[in-house]
Amino acid sequence: MQNKYTSTRNDKVAIDAKAAIYKGFSDDKGLFVLPNLKDIKINIDNLQTQSYGEIAYQILKVLLPDFSAEEIKASIQGAYHDSFDDDKITPLKKVADFHILELFHGPTSAFKDVGLQMLPQLMNRVINDEERVMILTATSGDTGTAALKGFKDINNVGISVFYPENGVSNIQEKQMYTTFGKNTNVTAISGNFDDAQTNVKKLFNDETLKQAIGKNVSLSSANSINIGRLIPQIVYYFDAYKQLLQNGDIKNGQKVNFTVPTGNFGNVLAGYYAKLMGLPINKLIIACNQNNVIADFFNHGVYDRNRDFIKTLAPSMDIQISSNFERLLYYKSNGNADYVKSIMQNLETTGRMQVEPDILASIKDDFYCNYCSDEDIKKEIRTVFDQYGYLMDPHTAVGYKVMREYQKSDDQHLNILLSTASPYKFIQAVSKALGLSGGSSDQESIQNIHAKTGFPIPTNIENLWKQTSQRPSHIAVKDMKKYVENNVKELWK
Ligand SMILES: *Cc1c(COP(=O)(O)O)cnc(C)c1O
């Protein structure tokens, strides 16, 4: 079983990393995991002298053991050598008494680029000439854009993106409709993110769809349920630690806290993987918006999504079913796949599940969780800009609020806040927070924010208005299957 991936819901499954990336998702509806993850350690003694790419190599090599060294090196080169606007890829900035890890320097200005520049590189080395893959992706805004960009015109791969109507920002929508790959498709659905994600998961297991698209076309995922997207996210936790060492902010081995704005639980799970692999992390601080299902879970040990879905100023975190939470439950139950299967089935049928007290206690050893209201998002954006001259996007502001809440516990460890998107992706919220009268157009709002803050506008966002947009598409949830079928037919007639 060493170094084979298994399913969170069936420990008889044992497949290679390549197969796990190709499939995305296990047939039993579980997610792929490495059972022996905590035995795989990364040596941090010489982190300081390593580039981002070298750290990425160390991590990918051990977690994707059936890829050759050449394949991994070429994938890292292909993913990062010229697509980020900062040589450090994920630069760490010191702001007052804490640090911000900027994850938004990729081609679509959100952290999703880190994983989604890599996933197509890996996928390309997994499929052979006869195989075709249609990637299905549910997005709360940023994954869709980053996936469309990452998979654009990749051979033998098509992509279909579903996003919630009125559930993404104007900039995110514009980014998605200016991608124009011959293999890219994007549509709004009449529903929220959870509807999109749940129905995409159903399509993976839909036999009639599989028959309709033919034997040589398979379906896969670009969401963080795919290990090929999740694993590259472990890298920046180690790289952040390296930057702290380089700046003399910590001594090697000293523990730090990371605060992570959380939706589908992919980002913060990558942090937990980094901890299991030996990175000195004290607490991982989970920051939710008002869709605070996980925060309630921390209080009661009950995960209950029977509540209203709230549209917030941090729309990429408007999620109530955090898929990757299942992976945490797998590790926290010591790989008890039968247990995970039973509680996940409860969640699917009743919208509610409860864990054993010892599992909750063990989760609380590693994590803290709290949430932030829309009012506080605006307040914190304003405060941090006024006090420290740093401009945060609304998701990062959620993290900031919760990080400060946690600090009241008197924990003295150094804090790193993950910044998950550029503030220019969420200009309405940011304008309001700064007290700017919203411009008459998005372009004007962007210029107003820039004039007030001097915070750099990412080139890809500045260039959005020079591009022609596709006409927006909108479908009912029940037509998602037909949509995928048509996309496959169009692409591989
Ligand atoms: C996707 C996203 C998140 C949530 O990340 P998860 O990995 O889904 O928890 C937070 N902020 C932004 C800007 C995002 O795009």
UniProtKB/TrEMBL annotation:
The Tryptophan synthase beta chain-like PALP domain, residue ranges: 101-407
Signal peptide coordinates: none
Residue list for modification N6-(pyridoxal phosphate)lysine: 112
Job of this protein: Catalyzes the gamma-elimination of phosphate from L-phosphohomoserine and the beta-addition of water to produce L-threonine.
InterPro entries associated with the record: Ser/Thr_deHydtase_PyrdxlP-BS (IPR000634), Thr_synth_N (IPR029144), Thr_synth_N_sf (IPR037158), Thr_synthase-like (IPR004450), TrpB-like_PALP (IPR001926), TrpB-like_PALP_sf (IPR036052)
Domain Threonine synthase N-terminal, first and last residues per copy: 4-80
Family annotation (Pfam families): PALP, Thr_synth_N
Protein name: Threonine synthase
UniProt keyword list: Amino-acid biosynthesis, Pyridoxal phosphate, Threonine biosynthesis
GO (cellular component) term, any one: cytoplasm
Reaction catalysed by this enzyme: O-phospho-L-homoserine + H2O = L-threonine + phosphate
Obligatory cofactor(s): pyridoxal 5'-phosphate
Pathway involvement of the protein, from the record: Amino-acid biosynthesis; L-threonine biosynthesis; L-threonine from L-aspartate: step 5/5
GO molecular function: pyridoxal phosphate binding; threonine synthase activity
BP term (GO), one: threonine biosynthetic process
Organism: Apilactobacillus ozensis DSM 23829 = JCM 17196
Highest taxon in the source lineage: Bacteria
PANTHER family: THREONINE SYNTHASE-LIKE 1 (PTHR43515)
Family note: Belongs to the threonine synthase family.
The keyword Amino-acid biosynthesis belongs to this UniProt entry's keyword annotation: yes
Assigned EC number: 4.2.3.1
